[in-house]
Amino acid sequence: MSEPETGHNTEKETLKSAQTEQANNKPFAVLGIAVLGVVYGDIGTSPIYALRETFAGKHPIPVDTENVLGVLSLIFWSLILIISLKYMMFVLRADNRGEGGIFALLALLRPNVHQERRNRRWLILLGILGASMLYGGAMVTPAISVLSAVEGLQVAAPSLGKFVIPITVGILWSLFAVQRHGTARVGAIFGPLTLIWFVVLAILGVRGIMMQPQVLLAINPGYAVSYFMNNGLNGYYALYGVFLVTTGGEALYADLGHFGRIPIRRVWFAVVLPSLLLNYFGQGALLISNPYENLHSFFHLAPGWALYPLIVLAAAATCIASQAVITGVYSLTSQAIQLDLMPRFRVQQTSAEVRGQIYMPGINSMLMIAAISLVLLFQTSGNLAAAYGVAVNSTMAITTVLAFRVARERGGWAFSPSLAFLLFFLTIDLGYLGANLMTIPQGGWLPLVIGAVLFSVMTTWRRGSIIATQLVSKTTTDLKTFVGRMSAESISRVAGVAVFFTGQLEHVPLALQQFVHRTGVLHETVILTTVIIEPVPKVYPSERIEIIRHDAGFIRLVLHYGYMQGTNIPSDLAMCTEHGLPINLATVNYFVGHINFLADRKQQGMASWRDSLFARMAANTEDATASYQLPQAQTMTVGLTIGI
Fold first, then answer.
1. DSSP 8-state code for residue 294
2. How far is CA 148 from the centre of its chain?
3. Which has more pLDDT, 601 or 276?
4. Rounded-to-integer distance, Cα 486 and Cα 515, Å
5. How would you classify residue 561: left for phi > 0, otherwise alpha for psi between -120 and 50, otherwise beta?
6. Per-residue pLDDT reduced to its tens digit, 12-64
7. Is the separation of the CB atoms in 152 and 47 below 8 Å?
8. Which whole-number Å values give the CA distances from 151 to 175, 196, 214, 377, in the listed order?
9. In this predicted structure, what is the pLDDT of residue 427?
10. Spans of all domains in the chain
11. What is the model's pTM?
């Protein structure tokens, strides 16, 4: 592990949110199509399997008119209350400089402020748990989406059923294989294809509704009440299928920073919500007309001649949904690294124009192995559905709690309305979560295991990093003492500029102390560089650089970044010229401290297994040379060993 160069998030107040929608001058039609392709791919593919799982899943219920109307009523009000009201009207307001997602919520709560308090530590752990479960859902999404689309072949020709798994695996492998090329060119066709997909959803829905127009009565919530009265506990268990219609809600919140809340809201109410409701109601009408076709009611909505084209379109739509999830995981991991919740992974920039378009080889391989393994393990999308809801539902419930705290601490909400928000939506979230937890024996255990593993990884890395920083601080000296010691020992100075990295503004880095101790010389100009990740998604260039000059040729350089931004030290050093610090980048020497941690029980650290886990992660983390984009020919690593 490199010597801790990155300081913890400062306690500065978050700047006022940058309203993306005000800055975006694109025509709404163009922007709306882009929103469709990026934001709504996940929730847009739920009609393929959601209604099927409700009636023919792990807890099947009889297919009759009353039950169909009851389920449609539950679907209607779930989309209205959870997505339209909770996310569109409330959660999207909780942006951090225009960015959304669970880490944005966590950053808004400034978890490092008074982190010694129990409730503050509880907030941090809750946010980490939500992110961990989000990873679990991200691993399931490509598998269930693509597999559910390819299963349409069984409807077109039952004899093709044996090819479903091989074709699904092939599509998934191809999808992950192209990630290293970047998504800029492919993304250009995402929006139009997704628009076609939603138009087809609506047309198929209208075709179905014409068979049984009475399904429109399901907007009456009384049918939902009757559903529970008629089906009892088994009807409650089947709610895990109904919940699948809302999967994608967290994704649209995480994509807030790409487009802003206004375009996301408009597209939802103008295109997505009507198309989804029409399709669900059309499937319901088909079930009333022919209850024996409930296994794949989505594909049965299409006329025979359109079945194969629909399968191809569904496969393309699920690939788009999976693509959005994959790139979302890259972004989530990048944010976790910046917030010091994960070790550094290798990051490749795939676009010269857009800094946020990145590729992580290690994360991509992990997702590919997970998705293909899930397909081979569970075999059908129905089996995977049991694992899907638990992960997404858990994250939604945690989002509700964090949004409540944001409303109280940052939004200025009075206690009564904020408590009403919490109780109302948490009741809905926990109601669905109870049904989803009933699927644990059938596969719901999977995201729980994934979440537990990632929760352990992130909390161990965070705690280990804090302990490591404390240990390092005990062996370092302040700058004034160090300069005085150099003068007393008559340390020779050589021409040139040396850049050292430290996470502590008041102390010199261990790498500097070790370098002087081993060589007995030091450069004429020494730049002590500290990278600080602010609790905001982005820091503007005008706020990036802070320079403090000291005696004896020492300079403090503080670089501020948002947690969604990558670091590029040479680029920022070049900008220092504007601040009166001319630097010839070709002659700069970079010195990176690398610490080897040993799990040593003599230290008061964590549990022994966590000490060992942290030491192993630290040994395999990406070197700061790549993370900070330092030129290898000008970089030297100075190592030392510390017990933890």
1. -
2. 23
3. 276
4. 12
5. beta
6. 333 333 334 333 445 666 777 877 877 887 888 889 888 888 888 777 888 88
7. no
8. 18, 21, 30, 16
9. 93
10. 28-133+190-310+375-463, 475-643
11. 0.77
